[in-house]
Inverse folding.
């Protein structure tokens, strides 16, 4: 296991500045996405993925993961929306070409939401069909496709997520904080570690997707041990944020990044 830093944790920084901060903190890896000042050019990824990949070559950091959104926002062209699969598959082909060209090991997408007129089970069924086709497409690429179950998706419980993974074979970008804020205990989330291809680190507690390191309930050394026992050998992406989503506006992002970094290094040093 190794550390990474999410570029969207530093919303005012350019991509190069975020990469330089990752290097300065001794992390040396950066997750990339479509948000804030460090955003990649989505239109270029979808029109000329190899050219988009070439723009990342001289950042001087490893890029373990790319976060892709279909359409605009959490619900635009989401995987549970009927009628979106053909276009999403075409987009995904370009995304995976981009990832392979940039030597990005994992790509994460979102599982989908409960759309107007749907039940949770109906959203699951549409997403399952989408993900099965996407996993089949991804088998022809080096990058591993994974989903991040999140608050306000249809997949808000460990049980639903486990069923979805078992039904489709998709891997997880596992973020304990999304389950913790909904009231699930850490030991109830732990069984999902066996499916993880990428992991996000952020302190949380029931009712709060993000909180200060010292104020949350997540036991990170226990989490690292669970992931290690599950055979996880990917990136742990440090992801405290400063954004309106779920009221995650009040932590000193740099302080939280360093606390999470040091927690992992202390655990790793004991092995």
């Amino acid at each position: 296991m190794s550390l990474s830093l999410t570029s969207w944790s530093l919303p005012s920084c350019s991509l190069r500045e975020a990469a330089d901060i990752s290097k300065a903190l001794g992390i040396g890896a950066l997750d990339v996405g479509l948000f804030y000042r460090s955003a990649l050019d989505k239109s270029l990824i979808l029109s000329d993925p190899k050219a988009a990949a070439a723009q990342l070559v001289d950042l001087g950091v490893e890029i373990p993961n790319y976060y892709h959104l279909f359409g605009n926002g959490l619900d635009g062209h989401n995987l549970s929306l009927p009628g979106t699969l053909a276009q999403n598959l075409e987009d995904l082909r370009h995304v995976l070409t981009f990832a392979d060209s940039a030597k990005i090991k994992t790509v994460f997408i979102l599982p989908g939401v409960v759309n107007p007129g749907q039940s949770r089970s109906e959203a699951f069924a549409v997403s399952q069909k989408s993900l099965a086709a996407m996993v089949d497409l991804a088998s022809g690429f080096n990058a591993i496709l994974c989903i991040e179950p999140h608050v306000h998706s249809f997949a808000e419980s460990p049980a639903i997520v486990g069923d979805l993974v078992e039904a489709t074979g998709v891997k997880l970008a596992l973020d304990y904080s999304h389950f913790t804020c909904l009231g699930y205990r850490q030991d109830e989330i732990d069984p999902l570690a066996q499916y993880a291809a990428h992991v996000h680190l952020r302190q949380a507690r029931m009712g709060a997707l993000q909180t200060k390191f010292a104020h949350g309930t997540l036991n990170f050394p226990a989490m690292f041990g669970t992931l290690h026992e599950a055979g996880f050998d990917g990136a742990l992406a440090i992801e405290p944020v400063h954004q309106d989503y779920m009221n995650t506006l009040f932590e000193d992002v740099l302080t939280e990044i360093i606390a999470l970094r040091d927690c992992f290094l202390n655990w790793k040093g004991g092995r």
